[in-house]
Structures are given as C-alpha cells and as structure tokens.
Amino acid sequence: MSGPLSHIRVLDLSRILAGPWASQTLGDLGAEIIKIERPQVGDDTRQWGPPYIKDEDGNDTRDAAYYMSANRNKRSVAIDMAAPDGQALIRDLVAHCDVVIENFKVGGLKKYGLDYDSLKKIKPDLVYCSITGFGQTGPYANRAGYDFLIQGMGGLMSVTGQPGNGPEAGPVKVGVALSDVMTGLYAVIGVQAALAHRDRTGEGQHVDLALLDVQVATLANQAMNYLASGNAPGLMGNAHPNIVPYQAFATSDGHMILAVGNDNQFAKFCKVAGMAELAEDERFTTNASRVKYRDELVPILRERIVKDELDWWISQLETAHVPCGPINTIDRVFADPQVQARDMKVELDHPVAGKVPSVGSPLKFSNSPVEYRNAPPVLAADTKDVLKSVLSLSEDDITKLAERGIVQQ
C-alpha cells in the first residue's frame, strides 16, 4: 500500500453507514482497515436489500448493495464481541492499531472493556472515534439517533420541501442519508487531526462525533441567516434564500437548474432569453433587488423558459457562460461524460461476483492516488489471515476459537 495513510491501521467496530463511510474513506487513503463483524450475521447492512449483488451465475448473494456502498478496502474479521474471549481478541488487536472507530450507544462498549478509558490503558496513544446520534454528553446522550430523525431535529427538513398548503407541500427528507455521510466525513477529518496531534505530542485522544452536531454545523448559510436576523428560514422548494434566480425551472420537455451567481450572469441570461431589458429594470438589476422582488421576477422567467427545450437552453446558456444544468436521474449521472472522465464508477474484483461496481472516490491526488485494493469483503474473509499476521495465532488456535463460536473463519 502506498496511499498517504498507508502507515495507519484502523480497527473498525462500526456498522450501518456513518462509521463505515469514515473507515472506507480512510481505507481509500491507504489505511489498513480491520472490520470487526458478528459471526454468521455481520454488518446489519449486508441484509438491507434488495437489491443484492449477484454471483457469477446471476443469483443473489448474501450482501446487499447498501453494504457494498461503504465497505471497500477493508478486511472482514468475524469475532463474537459478547464473549469474553472475543473481547480479549479485540483488545489484543487494539494494541496493534492506531485508530478505533465505533458507533455504539453511549456506554455500550464499557461492559465489554472496549470503551476509550479501557483501551487507552492498553495503548495510550490510541485515537478513538465515537459516532453517536447525540454525542457523549448532554440530555439526549443516551438516545438512539438515526439519519431521518436527525434530518428533522437538526433543521435540514425545515428548509427542504415545498412551501404552501397544497397536498405536495411540507418538509421532505433528503433522498440520501446525508447526516450519516457528512458525519462520516467529519470523522475522517477528526481522526486525521487527532493523528497529527499524536505525531507532535505522542498523545492519543477521544474524538466525540454526534450526528446532530454535524447536521447543525452543516446548515451553513441557513444557520447564519437565522443567527444574523433572528428569523428562522422556511421551506422554499428549489429556490435559494439569498440568490435569485437560483432554482429549477420547467422547460418545454424537462427541467433545468438555473444558477445565476452574480449580476453579470443575470444580464447574460436575459440576453439569451431575448429579454435584455429585464436586466435594466431597477427591480432586477442587482441580486439584492432580485431577492426583494423575487415574487415578481420568477413568474416572468417561468413563462419564458418553458417555451424552449431543455437542450436548447443548456447549449445557449453554456455558450454564454451562465451556470445551468439538467436534473439528471442517477442512470444519466453515470452516463454523463464528465462523470465518466473523472472515474466515478470503478469495477472491483470480488471472490463471488467476479466483478462488482463501486462509486469512485472524489479525492484526486497527484502523487499518492486513491487505491481500490479490494471490493467490500464477504463476511469473515480475513479472520484467519488477520489473527495469524497481526496476533501471531497458530492455525490450531484459530480452529479451536472457531469451534467454540468465538470467531468465524
């Protein structure tokens, strides 16, 4: 391995999405990821299908596409964490690792001796990252947290959805578990920062990440709009609270996103639309005035844009350097030449399926590129190898553990 984190070994005790997303990203960057799973069952998301990946004969395997989305570049080791001997094995592995990632409920690992306070006695410079719904402290600390719940509690759904009182009005969740994904990315940042601190001081530490904290932090300009004005923003559909026109519009045969970011772009759009005089109207000359008179401007634009086809608008506006684009379905996303040119779909070797698709990493390095070493592993694929290579257990030792149900090989 030659990635920028190829000197780092991570013990991944997490499952579902936020934790696995973090460890997959660290694995993409070269870290060795040892994923601890329950024997015979594994990560819950292995069963979160259909769809499942197909074997080479076209039959469903045991692994769902959901699991495959967040578990490449890992080694699967199946250990019974509920058994004292399983806990001892995990503690032995911790002594050989730089990072632990877990997403159990607050205090959930203490009874196993796998909490931070217990493990730092084994490895004082350990970086231990906990991911929970609400964090290690506060009145909600003991609650379970799920992405959908956090999107609501964290304010994202209050600014996502259609305004009004019609049947389609109201808050809507984002179509991806975005709170989980963003928390996974913040976990990567936190782990790398803690490792940098360790490199300078020799000190490990506990990184405490909460989905709710991350969701609040990533409200970005919407949060600051409220903090600056005292007015809570509400539902605006596809419109933008601070920029006009910056929303979706219907064309004669589809939908287009028009993303005018400054007054010059608005003037260019008006020229393409054959309405150059609109850019001279004092109500619309500046973005601030367009925001103020949004309700007057947007109907004018809708009436004009719907008269021409999507491809015409895209072609004309791109030539005029006005930001715009189609609303693609996901099949069209992966057919897009730009997405293909950036290698955002990759094929990985898999012992059961032969080849499996995977979404490429967005990280592009000039000197230490992302490596796709292996597809998400089948359950327990690496138990024997890791216990032998890391803990120096013999074949006989591992066989006896497997016979007792402590490990699966």
From TrEMBL:
GO molecular function, one term: CoA-transferase activity
ATP-binding keyword on record: no
Keyword terms of this UniProt record: Transferase
Statement: the UniProt record of this protein carries the keyword Transferase: yes
Cited Pfam families: CoA_transf_3
Taxonomic superkingdom: Bacteria
PANTHER family hit by this protein: SUCCINATE--HYDROXYMETHYLGLUTARATE COA-TRANSFERASE
Protein name: CoA transferase
Organism: Terasakiella brassicae
